[in-house]
Amino acid sequence: MKWYRIISALAVACLLLSCATIRPSRDLTVTPVERADQVRGLLATLRTQNDALINFKGIGNITVRQNGLIQFDQRVAWIGEKPVKFSIAVLISGYPAVKLATDGRWLYYLEVQGQETQFRKMAARDPDLKRLISIPISASDVIAFIAGRIPLPEFDSVAFVEETSNPGPVLVLTDNWWGTRQKIFYNATLSQVQRVDVFHRSGSLRYRAEVESTRRVSGFQVPQRLRLSNDDGVDFQLDIHRYWINVDLSPSVFVLTPPD
Questions:
Q1: Structural domain harbouring 168
Q2: Around Cβ 5, how many Cβ atoms within 10 Å?
Q3: What total of structural domains would you count in the chain?
Q4: Which of 47, 97, 196, 219 has the fewest CB atoms within 10 Å, measured from its CB?
Q5: Residue at 260 is within a domain
Q6: Left (φ > 0), alpha (ψ -120 to 50) or beta: where does 30 sit?
Q7: Beta bridge partners of 89
């Protein structure tokens, strides 16, 4: 399937919402109990990580593979603002051939092929990107990862687990209604999150996120390469070549209009 058809399918289907709230800490159960203070400290750090990073701009490359075969490989430019505002353009010969944007209320799609254009607008607070990369991750989660943060789902209990397969401990976030929501894998010194696994209610993996390399920009530690994958053989890689932080933005950059 050609890249523009993949993105067109995304524009039609982006209607799912992502939950990114945390219940009050008094409702939180931590096991083992002796790790409670440490776990609450780790969660507090996650909640405030790069909190002063309000928006960003970037240029880079997206590569999507299915079972090792490249399905999508294009240069892209994007603008994001927490929590859910996002705009991305696929660049062909340096020009934006396809644009996708969300302002937190509407999803916009604009495609230009020669003299033909295609424009769509639909209600969507937090679009899901499954139809683009075959991985069900919300726009707000993508914005959080690009901004150097870890998106957190709703949960009411946390387990501090030592896993032999991981060099450091793992925080397992659980909701009484949902079950296991998310696993956060740390390095041995608890100084860096190495991997995040997010789960469906059925217990199957929704997606895995790994920040493979980072760099410091304007005092913020942000990703240089972000990888998303799942158990169906889908591998999404974002290489960030240029990164700008807290730039002057007009709300109009997250709104697309049909061409004259």
A1: 3-247
A2: 10
A3: 1
A4: 219
A5: no
A6: beta
A7: 77, 99
